[in-house]
TrEMBL record:
It comes from Daucus carota subsp. sativus (Carrot). Belongs to the iron/ascorbate-dependent oxidoreductase family. Pfam families: 2OG-FeII_Oxy, DIOX_N. One of its GO terms (molecular function) is metal ion binding. InterPro entries: DIOX_N (IPR026992), IPNS-like_FE2OG_OXY (IPR044861), IPNS-like_sf (IPR027443), Oxoglu/Fe-dep_dioxygenase_dom (IPR005123), Plant_2OG-oxidoreductases (IPR050295). This is Fe2OG dioxygenase domain-containing protein. Keywords: Iron, Metal-binding, Oxidoreductase. PANTHER family: OXOGLUTARATE/IRON-DEPENDENT DIOXYGENASE. Residues 185-283 form the Fe2OG dioxygenase domain. Coiled coil: none annotated. Gene3D superfamilies: B-lactam Antibiotic, Isopenicillin N Synthase, Chain (2.60.120.330).
Amino acid sequence: MESPAATNPSSRFDVENVPTNYTFPEKDRPGELPPVCHTLPVIDLGKALDAETVNLIFKASQEFGFFQVINHGVSEKILGDTTDVLKEFFASPEKEGSNSCGKSNWVYDGSVNFDVNGVHLWRENLKHPCNPLEECMQQWPHHPTRYRDVVSTYLTEVGKLGKRILDLICQGLGLEKGYFDGFSGVELLSANSYPPCPDPSLTLGILRHYDPSLITILYQGDVPGLQIMKDGTWITVGAMSNAFVVNIGNQLEIISNGILKSVEHRVVNSSEARLSIAAFINPSPSYIVEPAQALVTELNPARFKPKSYKEFVYSSGALGTHTKTLQRE
């Protein structure tokens, strides 16, 4: 018989041992966690943004598909307020039923998600659309009462940061200035609460996947958990206070004609509680994603078939959990 904590939403993570329906098969377990990687580039956006900054981002996007940014312009107060309000949401007993009453556009997942073997993820998740912001926020959670004001402020600032980063990537690729101006900013927020785990070697917070976004901007606070695949090995991304992790999504790999890399990643658990906030900057659903014409030549023909973003998402699976299914020519 399963532990009551395995089925009771209010107590399922408050256990001394990992329940069997949260224990992954041995071949999929993270096992002994590798040390934190200190080679992932950390890029300072607070200084003059020159050719060196562009080159650092470009190289990181080719070699790792990930980089961290500091002095990014999003204030510590905004980060602190957003973290606090999300912690309040996940601690609230109202989180599991309040979106079932009336019109809403957000989804709370108390670890209903599971892999093909029926093993549950060691996490709780809140996900909702963000664009157009003024319209979407009217249907976000209303508990805590300040949720909508705090999170909309956060997303506005992260959207500005995303535009700055895309402008720098645009320069690195040699595309015309403003190439990404038509993209509409943060389309989706996904916040994850990872409770303390009695044995992180047995569980996973998020399965291995590639992001279907253009770029993803992640805030992971002070507790590491994100792992990326590098040369066939999982490496753990260090957690830096007030830093953002940025990763290249599938759509940007397509637009760059394979120059930049969308890299597989996953989330492992910890003996400490962890909160992460992922903001996905995506094309609009009808946008036809294909290699930029300036990057397609006779010597470097198009490597991917054109496809609308909506087609890509629905053919690949749920956002943030699908495998890489880029259609190459």
